[in-house]
Amino acid sequence: MRLLTLAFPILLGSSHVLSTPTQRPFAATAAYEQDRPHLIGPNDSRKLDDEAIIDWVPAPPQGMKLYPLHISGKEDERVNLMFFADGYTFDEEAKFVHDATKLKDDIVSPKGAMFHVAHLLNIWATFVPSNISGIGTQSTSLPGAAFGLYRPGAELRGVYVERKRKARAACTYFREESDEGGCDQPILLGNDPLYGGLGGEFTVITASKLNGPLVLRHELGHSLIPVGEEYEGGFAYFGANSDTIDRVNDLKWKDFLTNSDEVRVEDAKVPLQFYPWHDLDNSSYVISFNSTNTSKGQYPTALLRASLSSIPFASHISITLNGNSLDLSDGFPSAWKGSKDRRWLEVPLERGLSEGESTVKVELTKKGRKEVAGQGGKMITSLEIVEYGGEGRFNQTEGFVGAFPTYAMDGSVTLRPTNEACLMRKVNHPTFCPVCAHALKTSLEGRIVKKRGGL
Ligand SMILES: *[C@@H]1O[C@H](CO)[C@@H](O)[C@H](O)[C@H]1NC(C)=O
Ligand SMILES: *[C@@H]1O[C@H](CO)[C@@H](O)[C@H](O)[C@H]1NC(C)=O
Ligand SMILES: *[C@@H]1O[C@H](CO)[C@@H](O)[C@H](O)[C@H]1NC(C)=O
Ligand SMILES: *[C@@H]1O[C@H](CO)[C@@H](O)[C@H](O)[C@H]1NC(C)=O
Ligand SMILES: *[C@@H]1O[C@H](CO)[C@@H](O)[C@H](O)[C@H]1NC(C)=O
Ligand SMILES: *[C@@H]1O[C@H](CO)[C@@H](O)[C@H](O)[C@H]1NC(C)=O
């Protein structure tokens, strides 16, 4: 394995400033026309568009500047990931290379989610200047932005691409024309310090120090493996990490099972799962739900999982369950202290839920109300409770591969291989489960065979 990983800064000579033709005939982009459902973020009602009728692609942006970040082999024998800059001004070229390099390190460094396939990947970055620093909000991209990234509202949620054809052209240029660089998977990196992104043809992420790597890994899981979600409340469950209950005795991942002779569906229930996106400056948030019938104590333990935005300190928020205040310190580790970025928290409920109705109340404390709101407002963005079966009906042991139920938005259930061992379920988990990790390798190898002109 030849691993050539270039460290920042790499200042390339002017020969790397690529000049490009002004207009080119339509390139074969059929495979790219299809937008996958939004894998994170809201439903885009501005669904495109004129794209179906175009018969040409515009020229790629002028003056693109290419930086090799991780080169393990020749372009046509590797899957090439390409970061493109959006919302970085001329003066922010070094910041772009720095941001992209950090993200590259996150995925292919020894502890990274894709270290085991680093030898199958090349990672590049292309700087394209934008006129204004940052990305748009309220469905409006910034004037003079390279690819026009924007948030549909103010919330720390999805980030969309206005100038899709420009982005497609830039990627096609590196895939089909340029002698240097490659682009099998474009990643549009928005110069914004907070959470946001989207999967699909373009992996869209932001330069959020805390969340950028999380979104990158998760979205690359969707586009490179490709697999669907493992978290509850979604609608896209497919691929190597998903199977139906009736197939519990012949699971796609049967070779990975810890106990392959007696496979059971682990017993967990999800009595509450919701994406409130509720602004706590407006009002507190209260929701009641019924626990799974616990009169026999079938579900002795539970977990509350939530995400928040613009809540910099644990002392700014209170979450109670039936009036008992919960310890939120898990969501406020020192590295995330003071940040108004989106954050993730889990509170084990060691004594489970009581029988019947329970109520969760989320509110700002006095300190929280005084704090100036960050981008998107002080929000409870998601909330879920999972109840675990007792008497050996749910295996919590880390590393256990079995059949765990995942509850979709419409209440239907599919199975996943691990409890919490995959970043497709828990975005702040650093790695894929063994099933996804293996599927990633197989998928990349397959793509390389295809590129070489094989099947
Ligand atoms: C997205 O929004 C459109 C228009 O409001 C609606 O018809 C469609 O069902 C929505 N899709 C999903 C997956 O929610
Ligand atoms: C961006 O800046 C360039 C150079 O200053 C200028 O020619 C162009 O009109 C600007 N574009 C927009 C949309 O503001
Ligand atoms: C805040 O409350 C007002 C009035 O009830 C409502 O119209 C608005 O949508 C709320 N905003 C958010 C972000 O919840
Ligand atoms: C809980 O269950 C009771 C009895 O079935 C029902 O009356 C009540 O509306 C339920 N509460 C919620 C929040 O669903
Ligand atoms: C809970 O389970 C017990 C025993 O199976 C049953 O008698 C009771 O009616 C159930 N309660 C509800 C609210 O379903
Ligand atoms: C629970 O997981 C552990 C660790 O993988 C395993 O050794 C054990 O056999 C599992 N128990 C059951 C009942 O599946």
TrEMBL record:
Signal sequence coordinates: 1-19
GO molecular function ontology, one term from the record: metallopeptidase activity
Pfam families: Peptidase_M64
Key word Transit peptide present: no
InterPro entries: MetalloPept_cat_dom_sf (IPR024079), Peptidase_M64_IgA (IPR019026)
Keywords: Signal
Protein name: Peptidase M64 N-terminal domain-containing protein
Native organism: Kwoniella shandongensis
